[in-house]
Amino acid sequence: AYVFQSGWTGVNERTFIAIKPDGVQRRLVGQIVQRFEKKGFKLVGMKLIQATEGLLKEHYTELRSKPFFSGLISYMSSGPVVAMVWQGLDVVKMARKMLGETNPADSLPGTIRGDYCVEVGRNVIHGSDSVESAQREISLWFRENELQCWEDTHSHWIYN
Ligand code: UDP
């Protein structure tokens, strides 16, 4: 873990997004990544990773007492996930809108969960629910040198 630079706010806000094992198995990676690219967000980290149970239990530590916790850990460790960090204005909240609701049945068509899945236990994608959890999750899943700072040459067409 590392200390976050202050200033990851505004257009530099970051969120942690993970395409879950069902999303990888079902070949949804390209289409999901494309949605974030087309929206105008900036990719600053991405890796295909087989998460350990230890990492997942830490990631979902707030849910430890839930009845679905052990099923969630085996689902999330059943295959590789695509772990990503996306950057942009209000990206935490916007990404949650793009994902839809936790339960795909409550997710509108047009959202990722609304378009690609039917059950809460196989809901294809994770996205941080607040700026604070984004910072915690990014430092849990990524080393600082795995995140890239790069100049976005068309940011003037996304921000005014
Ligand atoms: N989950 C589940 N059953 C439930 C609620 C949640 O299997 O009744 C799983 C689901 O994969 C969800 C994850 O646990 O995405 C984390 O739950 P959380 O409430 O944090 O929802 P999220 O932030 O992912 O929308």
From TrEMBL:
Kindly list the places in or outside the cell where this protein is found, as annotated in its UniProt entry.
Answer: Cell projection
GO terms for cellular component: cell projection
Q: Which UniProt keywords apply?
A: ATP-binding, Cell projection, Kinase, Magnesium, Nucleotide-binding, Signal, Transferase
Question: Record's SMART domains?
Answer: NDK (SM00562)
- Which residues participate directly in catalysis? 126
Nucleoside diphosphate kinase-like domain residues are 12-149
Residues annotated for ATP binding in this entry: 20, 68, 96, 102, 113, 123
Reaction catalysis annotation: a ribonucleoside 5'-diphosphate + ATP = a ribonucleoside 5'-triphosphate + ADP; a 2'-deoxyribonucleoside 5'-diphosphate + ATP = a 2'-deoxyribonucleoside 5'-triphosphate + ADP
Necessary cofactors: Mg(2+)
Molecular function in Gene Ontology: ATP binding; nucleoside diphosphate kinase activity
**What processes does the entry annotate via GO biological process terms?**
CTP biosynthetic process; GTP biosynthetic process; UTP biosynthetic process
Q: Which Pfam families match?
A: NDK (PF00334)
The answer on whether this UniProt entry bears the keyword Ubl conjugation reads no
Enzyme Commission numbers on file: 2.7.4.6
The similarity annotation says:
Belongs to the NDK family.
User: HAMAP family under this entry?
Assistant: NDP_kinase (MF_00451)
Name under which the protein is recorded: Nucleoside diphosphate kinase
